[in-house]
Amino acid sequence: MRDNNEMPGHLARRFQQIAVAVFLAEVEEAGFDLTPVQYAALSAIRTNPGIDQVTLAGLIAYDRTTITGVVDRLVQKALLVRHASSRDRRARELQITEAGKRTLRAITPAVEAAQRTMLRGLTEKEGAELMRLLRKATAAGNALSRAPLRDAELR
Amino acid sequence: MRDNNEMPGHLARRFQQIAVAVFLAEVEEAGFDLTPVQYAALSAIRTNPGIDQVTLAGLIAYDRTTITGVVDRLVQKALLVRHASSRDRRARELQITEAGKRTLRAITPAVEAAQRTMLRGLTEKEGAELMRLLRKATAAGNALSRAPLRDAELR
DNA sequence: TACTGATAATCAGCATGCTGAGCAATATCG
DNA sequence: CGATATTGCTCAGCATGCTGATTATCAGTA
């Protein structure tokens, strides 16, 4: 039996665990209170104003039931507004607020710093190679999770 | 602003998301109901009978407060027993049951298959390189999370 | 021995993430 | 047009994971 610490699954969880901890630490140090999901959602909504929740979920590869709660909390923080779509009364259109835009701009350096911190220990070349391999592996396994990454244009 | 999908943090979460989905699918197909954490804990306890919860948490890099619930559920499933230590009345000694050992043996092929599935899309060499880079990155970032990996002998 | 600090475990509370179900609205097809 | 299927969203329920606090116990020291 292979040692648990040598399994890809364990290493994946461990790297993700460190990545989240680093993200939250950098963001808090910068004076903000935003989780990785919340950041990803806010960022995607800024790029795609008026997007509905299902499309948003696909863009950042989150489950749609998870997005409901995430959007709730972003609305609570007044970084987003959510209102019914006029074309499809089932859908909710998401718009970033001015406060949301300000937060995104102000938080970006901390987010970038976090990305560097989580790769510390790797050389520049190794970091790039890790990214390439993760992109390749996640592309191949995309359909295996309930929340695959989806291109907005393909919808 | 860098696209979210190009950030190490996003790729880390995505790979972990796929890894968990693959693990659960393979394990369920084999007729078992065990999560990745539960498997890791059970496996570590078999190797270290009588281990206490804090040491267990360190061995598999989980937060001690998370382990409480995980152990609860494993005891519930009769795969573990938990009883007070005689030397230290604060600590609980964990022992794997016969049913736990049988489950571990029977589930191993599914777990190994899951590890291969989550690396599908990568060549043999790329898979090994990904593992090496993840090991290096997690070793460098080990202390950054609240639940660092800890060697049992160092305690 | 009494005091002080550290440690093992648990708990409350919050935020992800998932499965599966349900509701309302829309799209499709006979 | 009307039945049926599909879609957007939400909810209940469960399991991770985390922060911070509390309780019981142990260890070291004045």
Features:
homodimer; mainly alpha; two-stranded antiparallel sheet; 6 helices; globular; DNA-binding
How would you characterize the overall build of this protein?
The structure is a homodimer of 155-residue chains. Chain A is mainly alpha-helical. The first copy, chain A, has one domain: Winged helix-like DNA-binding domain superfamily/Winged helix DNA-binding domain (Arc Repressor Mutant, subunit A), CATH 1.10.10.10. The first copy, chain A, is built from six helices and two strands. Chain A has helices at residues 8-29, 36-47, 53-60, 64-76, 98-118, 124-141; strands at residues 80-84, 92-96. Chain A has a two-stranded antiparallel sheet with strand order 1-2. In chain A, helix 2 (36-47) packs across helix 3. The longest helix of chain A is centred in the N-terminal third of the chain and has 22 residues, at 8-29. The relative contact order of chain A is 0.14. The model of chain A has no long low-confidence stretch (mean pLDDT 94). Chains A and B meet through helix 1, helix 2, helix 5 and helix 6 of A and helix 1, helix 2, helix 5 and helix 6 of B. The structure holds a DNA duplex (30 and 30 nucleotides).
